[in-house]
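Changelog note: in this version the structure field was regenerated for every chain. One regenerated record is shown below for reference.
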Amino acid sequence: MKPIRRTREKTRRELFTRLEDRFRQGEYAEVEATARALAEGARSGRRRRPLPEWQARTLATMAAVAHGRGAEVLGELETLIAELAPVDVETQVLRLVVRRNRLVVLSGQERYEEAEREALDILGEISRLAHLITLAKLELSALGLLAGALCGQGRAEEAEAIARGNLARAGDGAAHLRVVLARSLNGQDRYEEALAEARSCTPPPDRKDSGLLGLVTAEALLGLGRREEAEAEARRALADCGRSLHPGHPRIRKARALLDRTTGEEPRP
């Protein structure tokens, strides 16, 4: 039986690798559907520890969150977190990934105080696992989301400190932190600096990040009184979101609200 099990495990890992590649290409609906089918198949042959099912459900919910359907799967995320008892490093890491996905949903729903608490707890768990495994990418993602939650609470200076303090080690994730940094500068009415950061930033490459850079750029331009440029940037951001994200994505709502502000249809808060 061992050779058969090893063959099945190899096949499963190869399939997950292909799905992760498709996730990076932004094929969220397809990835979610395939991952859910895998989860159902794993459930029918469940053993004492259903790791393949958990992995498939994690990928399915991650794809839904990335597409912008986080509100639909929030309850599923919370159920999965409860099921993932952290009995070993593998399940602890998987649980942290699910919690990070829940954190994205909380931020999108503007539940910033809850998001801050969740981000801090995730970072604490990552720190406790540091002697066993390096989770730099997950840590940087949680730090960026923490900074965003602080911005949402009007604590822009704290958010700026987090973004600046981690830029040097961000590597491929630097674009996300620069966007957060620009947002924190906008939050302090330092619009020239925010615009300079935004202009020097390469747009985050993933489809799920569509419109992020355009929104902070439009916000900075609006703060500087360059209303026509801000309107054009907001329209581009909204179009980018519309092409890449689910119609219910929170960023689409934010892009429309910002566009209304640039056109004077809604007073600046």
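Spot check on this record: Confidence is low (pLDDT under 50) at residues 1-7. The two ends are 66 Å apart (CA to CA).
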